[in-house]
Task: structure prediction
Amino acid sequence: MIGFLRGKLAHKAPPFLLLDVQGVGYEIEAPMTTFYDLPLVGAEITLHTHVVIREDAHSLFGFLKEADRAMFRTLIKVNGVGPKLALTILSGQSAEEFQRCIRDNDTQGLIRLPGVGKKTAERLVIEMRDRLPDLGAPPGPNTALTPTPVAAHPKQEAISALCSLGYKPIDANKMVQHINAEGKSCEDIIRLALQGALK
Result:
């Protein structure tokens, strides 16, 4: 329905962002892999999009990289994996890490992600194994990031974002508590929290 959107980045509040496309504001959900690479608010960006239409809601998902959207679309074809869980998986692991877990039958690596239990991890390994070649080469490492403005309370924003990704509030607090937030953006804190959680 909508293949991509190009417009001005109006607001960032992971996992949501607001894209101003010629005066129309599109509220878009995106994985943290996209947020890590977003420029400053006010810059123009292009997002590859995927629309999910249900009786109670129309949801728009956006990705800076075509490969991430391809991975998202493949994930939501897996029985029991909806858009929210697919976003959580893409936020918690890089495409390379996820593909390694699938190829190595590493269900324990998948279970560390919120919302992924043993049965879901096993189902992901079985169903995704044959679909991974269709995704093409995994995206390369993130390029140098454009500095993002530091929020007034980046730790609180990070906790809220982690809760939106499926972590329980008490766990999100623990993940963020030990991180030194001085000079760090919300996205920086989320990245460090997720790295710590998946060790």
